[in-house]
Structures are given as C-alpha cells and as structure tokens.
Amino acid sequence: QYMVETYSDLHFTAPNIYDQKVKASMGTVHNSRGVPGMLEYFNINLYSSTLLYDRLLSPLAKNGRKYYKYLIDSIMGGTDNRQYKIRFIPRSKSDQLVGGYMIVSSDVWSVREIRFSGRSELLLFSCLIKMGSVGKDDEFLPVSYNVEGQFNFLGNRINGVYVASLNYHDIVLEENQNKWKEKVRARIKGKSEYDLSDSYNLQCETTSFHTDSAYFETLRPIPLSEAERRLYKEDALRKDTIQRNIKPKSKSQVFWGQVGDVLISDYKLNLSNLGSVKCSPLINPFLLSYSGSNGLSYRQSFKYNRLFKHDRLLRVVPKLGY
User: Fold this and answer.
1) Which tens digit of pLDDT belongs to each residue from 164-179?
2) Which terminal residue of the chain has fewer beta carbons within 10 Å of its beta carbon, N or C?
3) Residues with Cβ < 8 Å from 12, sequence gap 6 or more?
4) Using 50, 70 and 90 to split pLDDT, how confident is the model at 303?
5) Inter-residue contact 269 to 276 (CB < 8 Å)
6) What is the DSSP annotation of 166-227?
7) Distance between CA 89 and CA 317 in Å, rounded?
C-alpha cells in the first residue's frame, strides 16, 4: 500500500487545453505510476453526450432512453429546495454504458452529484463527482472527485483510490465560443482525443516546491484518515530500518532492475543540448492488440522535445508499429 499527495494550480483554457503547476508534493513512494488510464476520469464534462470522450455514453445524452432505464430512488429536501435521486440502469451489457445514480435539483434542474461505474478495457472503475453550489459561479463545475479503479492484467491486480478537491479562484466565461472551439479542433485534429500530451502542460514550480509534511499540513483541504496516517508512520519506520540495514546492490541486481524498468515503464533519454526522447515501455498492454483479420499488432511511441530560447518548444511524436 502507498499514497501520494500533490497540491497544484490549474489553468483551464478550453476542453483538452489546460496547464498544471505542481507546488507541493509528498507521499510514501516516488515515481509511482498508479493505476493506468485514471487521469482522464478527472476531465469529465457531465453535460456532454459522452463521458471519457466517445468511449462511454452519458445517461444525460438526448438519446439516453434508448440505452438506459431511469428510476426515481428518493425525494429529498423541502418544497423550496427539493432534490431527486435518479438511478440509471443500462438496458444491455456493454462496456460503453455505465450504471449509477444522479441527484438533480428541482429549481434549476442541474446535477448536484453523480456516481457511475462500469468497465473500460482492462479497468473496472467507479466515479463520484460533486458539483458546486446552486447559484454560485461553480454551479456547473465539479468541486470534488472520488475515483476507484481496479486494473487486472495477466494475474496482476492493482487497486487505486483517487481523491481530488477543487477550489476555483477565478472563472471567466468566454463570450466568443467559436474562438476556442476552433482552437480545440486545431490542437486535436488528426490526434487521439484522449491523448492530452500535445495540449496538457505539467510542470513543477521549482522556486517554491515543497515536500515536507509540516508545510503540506497547512495546504491539505481534506484531513487524512487514520489509515492514511498509518501509511505515513509505517513509511517513516521502513525508511529508518532501510538506512540502518542498507546493503550495496550487486552489478547484476542493478542491471536486471534497469531491464525491468525498460520493459514496464516509460524511459527518457537526454541528448545533451539536443533535447530529450521519451519512449514507451517495451511491454504495454495498451499498445498491444489482436484481431481476427489483422492478427497481432505491436506499437511503440516516441516523444522528442527540445526547448529553445524564449520558451519555444519543438515536439515530434512518431509512432512505429507492426
């Protein structure tokens, strides 16, 4: 068991275009990948006809009655603040449909909360999203996420729980919607829509990046549970024991450890002043596929980045496959 926490500033321009600046981070392990494919569950537009882009059909879609059954589970609140808990049930078994419930306010008929679960490729997921308060600027925006995922592959099972709390400092509505729609189309034209590598910018604020627990305690919006505090205590004891009983690794251990990293993890090659190349792992279930007509397919992706003066960036993303 392990946990990782980050505190970040996010700047959202338009769908698929946003920047994240990590200001503080702490946890019990470093360079952990977590459950694959979970990042996209924190970029969901509830009022769109699809969830996770075109992979899941939303129960709020106009043609949702064809694919879902709806039941009123309960009615909550008084006459001036009534809310309906509505369950949605898939009419057929499909990885493109989800089951769960949503809570809708009667005054403005906006979603206050939604929980849905389903299956996507090798992943079992459950997602709970809570929206902002009625009448506030964040009414139609998520303020908290709670996502659980279970990843199964070749007998390996990974369980992950992800919690996010969002606080909006400034919300500006774009009057000319066609302006940013054209910008989005230009950024994702000819690319896979759920691959945000070309428009998603992640960086660490090196001048004020903190990793100490005392400082993080002042930032944390959600208090730690007893189980999470126990993980930190066990990690501190484990590090103390390792420091006292540390043994130098043999050359063979180092070599096979590096081989293992190349097989299952992304690896990066720095080319001095020529930039860097990031390669996908040699064994990646998302880059392997099989069909009756085409047989076995194997792919590799590479990302070349070079930063020039005045923050000009060159990025080349070739893909090879057989």
Assistant:
1) 888 888 877 666 555 5
2) C
3) 18
4) confident
5) yes
6) ---S-----S-HHHHHHHHHHHHTTS-TT--TTTEEEEE-GGG-B--HHHHHHH-SSPPPHH
7) 40
